TrEMBL record:
Higher taxonomy: Bacteria, Bacillati, Actinomycetota, Actinomycetes, Micrococcales
Active site, per annotation: 127
Enzyme Commission code(s) on record: 2.7.1.11
Broad class of enzyme this protein falls into: transferase
Oligomeric and partner information: Homodimer or homotetramer.
Name of the protein described by the UniProt record: ATP-dependent 6-phosphofructokinase
Gene label: pfkA
Subcellular location, principal: cytoplasm
Catalytic activities: beta-D-fructose 6-phosphate + ATP = beta-D-fructose 1,6-bisphosphate + ADP + H(+)
Domain of life from the UniProt record: Bacteria
Similarity remark: Belongs to the phosphofructokinase type A (PFKA) family. Mixed-substrate PFK group III subfamily.
Pfam family of the protein (one): PFK
Length: 341
């Protein structure tokens, strides 16, 4: 069989582990030809294919990024985009396509599947907000990096008696903020799932600094918002791909906290550091499991499914159930972060 493979959307550590698994399992076990497309859906539209075999995946397991390149690009939102995808796949004689991506890439995959292409998707995003799977490739590494950053910020916060705001990624869901906030011992965690009230935050900080300690760590997801009807409320501006301006919420919080408490406050925006570098063992393992599962699904005749971690098992879920939905942080996890503040 000729199997296409692409990585789309923002890169994450662990993508190369998944690519390697697809090639090893697909070519080595079943004799499939794996055809890579450069830069996500853009490469399919532009016909940028590269053969992928054993020699291309040597030593890539510990490397961050994606050896195929990636891009934020939705073929269905460009005139003639879907037709271009179909004609490239036909010209390359692709019988099934593996799409590794987050929400945007999977949404595009669903459109391409509706046009008659056999698709198997693999979820990846540091935001961990792909619906239908307990975990996505890249999340574990991002949480590990954010937790280490919070640990480092802790010591300097304490030395200077400061409020330190750590802004992490997560535009629609606060998985990184909540889990790294718990792991790093943050005093306050702000996630998009629970719009905040700045009055309560200011009150809490004043009380803590009077009664318990002279420093505080606030971890905020970039997509966190003040609750309607509370001070500081505003409408978040979104870009073409749903992105928010990095640093915006961190700076707003700093200005508000500083002016209302008088506490010396600093902001650290972790940004793309969370997406770079060596994947953790967990992300290498997850990428490898999903890569093997995707090839096995294709070989056994499955289509239009996504590999998903459900408890200890990798299962297949229908793509149409996943595309367009956001997996938000559950209340009990948010409650743990609050309970430990
Ligand atoms: O989609 C994952 C993500 O890491 C978001 O958390 C963040 O808002 C966005 O990517 C940043 O995207 P870009 O790399 O295009 O600036």
């Amino acid at each position: 069989m000729r199997v296409g493979l692409l990585t789309g959307g923002g890169d994450v550590p662990g993508l190369n582990a998944a690519i390697r698994a697809v090639v090893k399992r697909g070519e080595g076990e079943f004799g499939h030809s794996i055809v890579g497309f450069r830069n996500g859906w853009r490469g399919v539209v532009d016909g940028l294919s590269v053969p992928l075999s054993r020699q291309h995946i040597r030593n890539v397991l510990p490397l961050g990024g994606t050896l195929l390149g990636t891009a934020r690009f939705h073929p269905h939102s460009k005139d003639g985009g879907l037709d271009a995808v179909l004609s490239t796949l036909e010209a390359e004689r692709i019988e099934a396509l593996i799409c590794i991506g987050g929400d945007g890439t999977l949404h595009a995959a669903q459109k391409v599947a509706e046009a008659g292409v056999r698709i198997v998707a693999i979820p990846k995003t540091i935001d961990n907000d792909v619906w239908g799977t307990d975990a996505s490739i890249g999340f574990d590494t991002a949480v590990t990096i954010a937790t280490e950053a919070i640990d480092r910020i802790h010591t300097t916060a304490e030395s200077h008696d400061r409020v330190m705001i750590v802004e992490v990624m997560g535009r629609d869901a606060g998985w990184i903020a909540t889990t790294s906030g718990i792991a790093g011992g943050a005093e306050i965690v702000l996630a998009p799932e629970a719009p905040f009230d700045i009055d309560r935050i200011v009150k809490f900080l004043k009380h803590r600094h009077r009664a318990h300690a002279s420093f505080s760590i606030v971890v905020v997801a970039e997509g966190a918002v003040p609750a309607p009807g509370t001070a500081m409320h505003y409408e978040t501006q979104r870009g073409q791909f749903g992105e928010v301006v990095a640093g915006a919420i961190g700076e707003r919080l700093k200005a508000e906290i500083e002016s209302r408490t008088g506490f010396d406050t600093r902001v650290t925006v972790l940004g793309h550091v969370q997406r770079g570098g060596t994947p953790t063992a967990q992300d290498r393992i997850l990428g490898s499991r999903f890569g093997v599962a995707a090839i096995d699904a294709i070989t056994s005749g499955q289509s239009n499914v996504m590999t998903a971690l459900r408890g200890e098992r990798v299962e297949l879920v229908p793509l149409e159930e996943v595309a367009g939905k956001v997996k938000r942080v559950p209340d009990d996890l948010l409650a743990v972060a609050r309970a430990l503040a």
